[in-house]
Design brief:
Chain lengths: 226, 122
């Protein structure tokens, strides 16, 4: 983690003992990801995030208005509080068909009409039906780790991310604020594609919310494709 | 920054990540001395700082005691991890029950109860 590199270097000699103690634990974690580069982590503190985020849930109840079906679950602004939420809710693949999870910056509603979204668009990843079991949860987690970890150079342009569980194929999208900001959109899309480790045949397409409102989503053109 | 909880955190030896920003003219410099050209310095400079976490760093904290602590707010029961998958309770017709044992007026609730108990074993 880059934020604390300076302190890390300065304190290194004084924490040698504790570094040895956690080595075995880190070896276990290396199996999860080879990129683990953290030798010592203080588990007693909470790590602040760049932004506060709110997790939303959409339940497809046709007896109610669409807007009433969009419900806030919780907000968080530390890594630990993110996990406390994520670890206690169902993975996306276990949601009922027609339902969504959304993760948006606190203050932005997961809907086109929100002032932060209305001029924006989304990078969309369409998954095949059979990918729900293997790919969906991994891709969704990778996507939201990009958000909470502030992975994008243009992270101010990012509004949130949505996962739709649908019978004809699940979708994961990252919403951005300004559909006219080409350079930022492309930077975000490239980073997302890299972080999701998508095979070449799987493409991301950028769609403008305004076009989606006007037409059926299946015929909406992509402004950019990666 | 010394009072920040982050300051207590310690990492191993690692090069400080940098990014080069080419300045061609003095007017491209930020207005404030505290800001850095290009906007972001991955360090502790006030005004130029963003908190960036690599995915591996966040993953590494997934099973820490604080991350495992159940949240204080309420999560809808239908969303709780490990609860009965909703799709299972929605399709009672797919299972066969011995309806002779069940009074017809109680059948619906009985079926759902059975379903719940059965689904837990799955």
């Amino acid at each position: 983690m880059s934020f604390t590199s300076l302190q890390g270097k300065a304190c290194r000699s004084s924490i040698k003992m504790s570094a040895n103690n956690v080595e075995t634990e880190n070896e276990k974690n290396d199996q999860i990801s080879e990129e683990v580069d953290v030798c010592v982590v203080d588990y007693t503190i909470k790590h602040p995030l760049q932004c506060a985020w709110t997790m939303w849930y959409f339940e497809n109840d046709r007896s109610q208005n669409w807007e009433d079906n969009v419900r806030e679950i919780a907000s968080f602004q530390t890594i630990e509080d993110f996990w406390a939420l994520y670890n206690h809710i169902k993975p996306a693949s276990e949601l009922k068909q027609g339902n969504d999870y959304s993760l948006f910056k606190t203050g932005i509603k997961p809907m086109w009409e929100d002032p932060a979204n209305k001029r924006g668009g989304r990078w969309l990843l369409s998954l095949e039906k059979k990918q729900r079991n293997q790919e969906l949860d991994r891709c969704w987690l990778d996507a939201i780790l990009c958000l909470v970890g502030d992975a994008f150079e243009n992270s101010v342009e990012v509004c949130g991310a949505v996962v739709n569980i649908r019978g004809k194929g699940d979708k994961i999208a990252v919403w951005t604020a300004d559909a006219n900001n080409g350079p930022a959109i492309l930077e975000i899309g490239k980073k997302l594609k890299e972080r999701l480790h998508l095979p070449g045949r799987m493409q991301l397409g950028y769609q403008i919310h305004h076009d989606l409102m006007a037409k059926n989503s299946s015929v909406t053109k992509n402004c950019y494709t990666l | 920054m010394s009072s920040s909880p982050l300051a207590k955190q310690v990492t191993g030896s690692k090069a400080i990540p940098t990014r080069k920003v080419v300045i061609n003219d003095a007017c491209e410099l930020p207005n404030y001395y505290s800001a850095t050209p290009g906007g972001t310095l991955y360090s502790t400079t006030p005004g130029g700082t963003r908190i960036v976490y690599e995915p591996s760093f966040i993953m590494n904290l997934r099973n820490s005691p604080l991350s495992k602590t159940p949240p204080t707010y309420e999560i809808p029961s239908s969303l709780l991890r490990g609860s009965t998958p909703e799709k299972k309770t929605k399709s009672p017709s797919k299972r066969h029950y011995n309806k002779n044992h069940i009074d017809s007026t109680k059948r619906d609730t009985k079926q759902i109860e059975d379903e719940d108990q059965f689904s837990l074993d799955l």
